[in-house]
Amino acid sequence: MQLPAWRPGRYELQNFAQKLRGVTASANGESIDIAKETKDRWLVQAAGAETVEVNYSFYARQMDGGGSWLDEQQLYLNGINCFMAVEGRELEACELKLAIREDWQIACGLSEKTKHTLVAANFDELVDSPFIASATLKKATYEVDGIPFHIWIQGDCKPGWQQITQDFEAFTKEQLEVFGNFPVADYHYLNQILSYRYYHGVEHSNSTVITLGPGELLMQPSLYKEFLGVSSHELFHTWNIKKIRPKEMLPYNFAHENYFRTGYVAEGITTYYGDYMLARAGVFTAEQYFEELNTTLQRYFADYSRHNLSVADSSFDLWLDGYKPGIPDRKASIYVKGALTALLLDLQLRKATDNNASLDTLMRQLWENFGKRNIGYTEQDYEQLVESVAGQSFKTYFENYINGTAPIEEPLDRALGYVGCNLKATESPLLYEQLYGFKTVADNQGLKISAIAPGSPASQALSIDDELVALNGRKLEQNLQPLLSETDTSESITLTLFRDKQLREVRLQHNGQSFYQKYTIEKRPEASEEEKQNFKLWLKQGF
Amino acid sequence: MLYYQVSYDNPLSHFINIKITIPETSSRNYTCNCLRGVQGVMNYKTLLRN
C-alpha cells in the first residue's frame, strides 16, 4: 500500500503520511501483519486471505484548495491526502462510500452510484476528485456547448448568481474557443468561501477547489475579480496540465518527485490566460486587465532573483523550495515570470505572423497533438512547436528568457509596441526603496528589513530582519517615508537599529543608482491605427 | 473493484476513519512495483512496457 507523498498542482513533497494514525490490517476478522517499508509505504501480509481490510484514521484539518477538513458542518476531502493505493491494482475501479448525515449533499466530479456512494474508474480518478459533503451547499449551473458547469458554494456568503453565471459563461466560451472542445463531460467548481481573507485554487480533471474569503466581500469588486481570476485560471488547467501534460508527469508518480522544467507552460501560460480570457470575454475592461498585468509586473520587478535562476531551472527546483520564500534572490516564480514570458511570446507570435498566429494557435496545437492524444510533451516538443507556429527561429526567446536570465524589459516593451502599448518605468515612490535599496515590513516588534537589493547602499550596511528604530536620531513610528522625504538625501543618513538584540548605528549614502523601479503597461497616445487594430485583435476590445 | 469507506466519530476531533477493502488478493498478479498514477489504460501499458 502506498500513500501519495504530494499532490498534482503543488510540486513539492508534502508527506501526507504524517497525518495518519493507527494503521492496521485484518482478514476474516483477524488482525494481520502490516509493516512500514518507507515513510508512506506499507507491506500487508495477506497470508492467503481472499479479502483484506486496511484501516487508519486521518487528521482532516487543513482548509485550503489542496487540503481536507472535517467539522460539524461539512466533510471536505482531497483523496490524494489520505487514500492509499494498492500497488499493482491502480487501474481497478474504486467505490467510495461516505458514512455521512442523511441530509448531506455531495459536490464532486465523480458520479454518485447510489446515495453517498461514488465511483471512480481507477485510483488516479479517485484521488483527482475532491468532494465537499454538507447540508448547506449552494449551487448554480450554466451550460456552454451542451456541457454543464456546476458552481458549488460552501460557506457564508450571498452569491449574486446572475452576475456569476453570466461572467463564468463568458470566460468559459472564450476558453472553449481557444481549444475547440472541452476535455471532459462536465465540470464542477467547488468553492469553499471562508470567513477570513484567503485565496487558493487547485485544478483537477473535471473540477477545481477554490478557497476564498472573506465571504461577506465575495461580490465586492476587489474580491469578486479574484474569484473570477482564480476560476478562469483553474478552468484553463482542464486543458493545460490535466491533459496537456509534461512528459515527466504522464503518468504522475505520487510517491516521488516528478522533476520537470516546463512549469512556465503549465503555470505561466495558465496564469497569463486566466486574466487574459476575462479581458477577451469582456468581463474585464482593458484597464482592469492592465491592473492585473501591472500587479504581475510589480511582483516580478520587486524580486532580484530574476537575475539568478531561469524560469526553466526554477521549475525544476519547485521540488526544492518552490513554495516558500527561500533564501534571498535565488529563484524565479514560474507563475510570475511564466506569465510575463507567455505575454511576450503571444505578442511576438502575433508580430512574427502578421496576426495569423498567436499563443492561441500554439495552445490549440498542444491540445490537438499532445493533450488529446494522451502524449506528454518535452521541452524540445514545446520549442519546436513554437518555432513551427512562428515560422521562424525563437532561439533568442528560449535562450534569453526561458533558459536564461536576460532582462525582459526591452523585448517586452518592444512587443507591447506592436499593440500600441509600452512598458513604463517609474521610480519607487518609497525613498528608502528607491535611494537605498531596502524594503521593510511592519510587525509587532516594529519595522523590519524584509529585502535588500544586491549592489545597493543597503546591501553594505543592513541585514535581513534588522529592526529599525530611528532615522537620524528620530524615533521611527510608521514614519520612515515622511521623515526621509524631509531629509537632505544628498548627505548620508543614519539608521539606528537592533540586530540580534544589539543596538547599532549604520550610515547609508545614496550612490546615484535607483532600486526597485516600478513598471506598468500603458497605452501609447501616439499609437498608429495599425497598432490599434493589433490591440483589438489581441484583446477583442477597442484601443 | 476496490472499496474505500470514509466515516467519522467526532467531527470536533477532525479525525476521519478510512477503511480500504481489497478483495481477491490471492488471485491477483501484482506486477507493478512502484506507484504510478494512471491516465487511462494506454498510459499504464506504456509504463509497463517501459
Gist of the model:
The complex is a heterodimer of chains A (543) and B (50). Chain A is an alpha+beta fold.
What portion of residues of chain A belong to β-strands? 25-35%
Output mean pLDDT of chain B. 71
Class by alpha and beta content of chain B: alpha+beta
Distance between the termini of chain A: 58 Å
* Counted beta strands of chain B: 2
Going by helix content, strand content and strand pairing, the class of chain A is alpha+beta
Q: How many H/I helices of chain A?
A: 16
Fraction in beta strands of chain B: 25-35%
Radius of gyration of chain B: 16 Å
Shape of chain B: rod-shaped
Oligomerization: heterodimer
| Run of helices and strands of chain B | EEH
Q: Give the mean pLDDT of chain A.
A: 97
User: What general form of chain A does the structure show?
Assistant: globular
Q: Strand arrangement, largest sheet of chain B?
A: 1-2
Question: Could you please describe the fold and organization of this structure?
Answer:
Chain A is of the alpha+beta class and 543 residues long. Chain A has 16 helices and 25 strands. In chain A, the strands form seven sheets. In chain A, strands 19, 20, 21, 22, 23 and 24 form a six-stranded antiparallel sheet that branches. In chain A, strands 13-14-15-17-16 form a five-stranded mixed sheet, with helices on one face. In chain A, strands 6-7-12-9 form a four-stranded antiparallel sheet. The longest helix of chain A is centred in the first third of the chain and has 19 residues. Chain A is globular and about 85 Å long. The mean pLDDT of chain A is 97. Chain B contains one helix and two strands; from the N terminus they run E-E-H. Chain B has a two-stranded antiparallel sheet with strand order 1-2. In chain B, a hairpin with a 7-residue loop joins strand 1 and strand 2. The C terminus of chain B is likely disordered. Chains A and B meet through strand 5, strand 6, strand 8 and helix 2 of A and strand 1, strand 2 and helix 1 of B.
